[in-house]
Amino acid sequence: MSSDSEFVQSDNNFVTARQTMIEEQLRQRDIADPRVLDAIGRVPREYFVSPESQRFAYNDSALPIDCHQTISQPYTVAFMCAAAQLTGTETVLEIGTGSGYGAAVLSHLAREVHTVERIPELAIQATERLQRLGYDNVHVYTDDGTLGLPQAAPFDAIIVTAAAEQLPEPYQEQLNEKGRIIIPLGSDSTGQRMYRFTLRNGKLLEEVLGAFVFVPLIGKFGHRPE
């Protein structure tokens, strides 16, 4: 990790690019929630990618991170956060920490963020990065994300950053009444759709929000590791 002084200098160099991304990539694609736009504007995405990828940090594209994983494109992160309809009082579970960027955005939108990463190396890196940047309301765990996080449940929203063939069973059990699950579902990348499930009176109401492409969700209630 860079020193604090290096972080400040890097941030100053990327502020314009971040604001341009918000105006040209998010607003023009109908991301209108002011809280989501503000949260995206507060998080320095350049700190969540490799040094080699920093010049591309505000392109609207996924980028490689360690352990052969990726950081989602800014639009996808903003879309899922907006779909979760957060007001700032919620406890949120994120599945798939990756570099920690999504959790950092969520930290500005919710009261508490619990995020689960199955790859220990990424979880360690994300923990250190989030702590360095002052995201004190984010808690990182290493585990099978398809199991949810029963020790911290119930949640007001569960956001899943990888695609399963069907909704993992534990998620509904860990959701508060009127809670939302945002998850891509589909058997392959060409057939994936983003879903929002809302729990009302013990039943999940289902909405299809559009087509997306995600890596597979690995775990007991997801895909098997290759």
From TrEMBL:
Catalytic activity: [protein]-L-isoaspartate + S-adenosyl-L-methionine = [protein]-L-isoaspartate alpha-methyl ester + S-adenosyl-L-homocysteine
One MF term in the entry's GO annotations: protein-L-isoaspartate (D-aspartate) O-methyltransferase activity
Protein name: Protein-L-isoaspartate O-methyltransferase
Family (UniProt): Belongs to the methyltransferase superfamily. L-isoaspartyl/D-aspartyl protein methyltransferase family.
Function: Catalyzes the methyl esterification of L-isoaspartyl residues in peptides and proteins that result from spontaneous decomposition of normal L-aspartyl and L-asparaginyl residues. It plays a role in the repair and/or degradation of damaged proteins.
EC number: 2.1.1.77
InterPro entries: PCMT, SAM-dependent_MTases_sf
Any one GO BP annotation for this protein: methylation
Species for this entry: Gimesia algae
Cellular compartments annotated: Cytoplasm
Gene Ontology CC terms: cytoplasm
Top-level EC class as recorded in UniProt: transferase
Matching PROSITE patterns: PCMT (PS01279)
Coiled-coil regions listed in the entry: none
Main subcellular location: cytoplasm
Keywords: Cytoplasm, Methyltransferase, S-adenosyl-L-methionine, Transferase
HAMAP family cross-referenced by the UniProt entry: PIMT
Primary gene name: pcm_2
